[in-house]
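Q: Got a minute? One more chain.
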Amino acid sequence: MIRIGNASGFYGDRFSAWQEMLDGGELDVLTGDYLAELTMLILARDRLRDPDLGYAKTFLRQLETCLGTALERGVRIVTNAGGLNPAGLAAAITALAARLGLPARVGYVEGDAVQRPDALSANAYLGAFGIAACLDGGADVVVTGRVTDASLVVGPAIARYGWGHDDLDELAGATVAGHLVECGAQVTGGNFSFFTELPDGGHRPGFPIAEVHADGSTVLTKHAGTGGAVTVETVTAQLLYEIGGPAYLGPDVVTRLDTVRVHQDGPDRVRVSGVRGTPPPRTLKVGVNNLGGFRNSMTFVLCGLDIEAKAALVRGQVEEAVGKDGLEFTLARTDHADAADTETSSALLHVHLRDGDRARAGRAFSAAAVELALASYPGCTLTTLPGDATPYGVFTADAVPQDAVAHVAVLPGGERVPIAPPIRTAPLPADETAPGGGAAVGGPTRRGALGELVGARSGDKGGDANLGVWARTETGYAWLRAWLTVERLAELLPETAPLSVRRYELPNLRAVNFVIEGLLGAGVAASTRFDPQAKALGELLRARIVDLPAEVTP
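A: Always. Here it is, folded:
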């Protein structure tokens, strides 16, 4: 097997994780994922200020503390921290190694940048064979730009076992391993619905390790003595994160998530096996970030009686002051009747303005809100001082043919190795949505929170959100599968009712997954939702009070 650890799930993850993972036990490869759709926008703005930037600067500081340890222990490092400038980060690492007196060989992968007129950034999601070529070429550190998150694990497995494009089941198994560890501690108990059941209560989960075998099967684990846990349910939760249907599209393989089997293989060890793969699509996904305009927000505190009338008054006054275009009002009824203190008696009126005119969205708006302090509803107060507008980005996705991208591995000696696209591709899989309904578990029911019976994990994909829900028992899944339809979801989460919702079933995981199109508008950077990345959507669903089947609840 090859032991592949993860030390970063996003740009801003635990700074000390790289050193902790290197000191915690044996590893062959240590990976770090820094790129999300929002991160690409941040890096694009960095590059506008300084063309030499465009990569995750934090990674350099982390590497300075542990590069020597990695080289001494023979642990190779693979990261997508190169962002929009992998060559720049590779050069910075080479300079860092020279300054530290360390003989580090650095390779990098490029070719993901795609030309899109007027876009801040446009990048194709590359596969794993460029990473493998860099490792085969002797690199101690491999830097990439926009590859799929799973490629950080698939690439080292390809280099270890010599898989080719036709080893679809093996590539699919490694893709699942990569998907499981890409978000760091999320698979070891982080953000876990049943965190109170973890040995340490979820206090400080360790980072994960994937022991990938030659047949593509994997054991998920973590270093001994670290917090959190690796269980069938923590693994299931991460499997459901930011996915769509059973066909999980990738540049090297389409992974069939409905073939994944998980079982406990010992304390903090979960075996993942049975994964099947089919040929990849003919195109690569391209993530495009554009400047959407400028935005600003102010929040009014409405206390006591007549909350709706107070909100209506503010709305009329703000619209009269700055005009209606681009304004959005959200009234959060956080108030309680007959409350004994101001905070629990208050609701919050969030007022957002988005506009292409920075001046209108800036002080003209926020100052107009503040000017109402002595001329509006009784008890008028705001949570912030007036401020300027900030730019926001809009994320869209399109596609390019696989052979239209110049995927290149640049080896430590400077040799450029072209990476050929897959020889065998296939059309996009047919829709596999499942409406649900049918025979339900009978018998008596009782009122209770849905989360007593199920766990959930939710997240963002551009302007869409995914919501995966799993049952803790087979009987619970029989009930969940019949009961939780798209129509039921609309009743429980009314904001989904006007939207297009796709529902999928994953019986091996005792799970259903929903993709809610357009919930996040034009993407995370443009969203004005209270929960802009839909991270809490699953917990909101679990908190709804429903009729639970008495025989399958605790």
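A: Residues 125 and 249 are 11 Å apart (CA to CA).
Q: Perfect, thanks.
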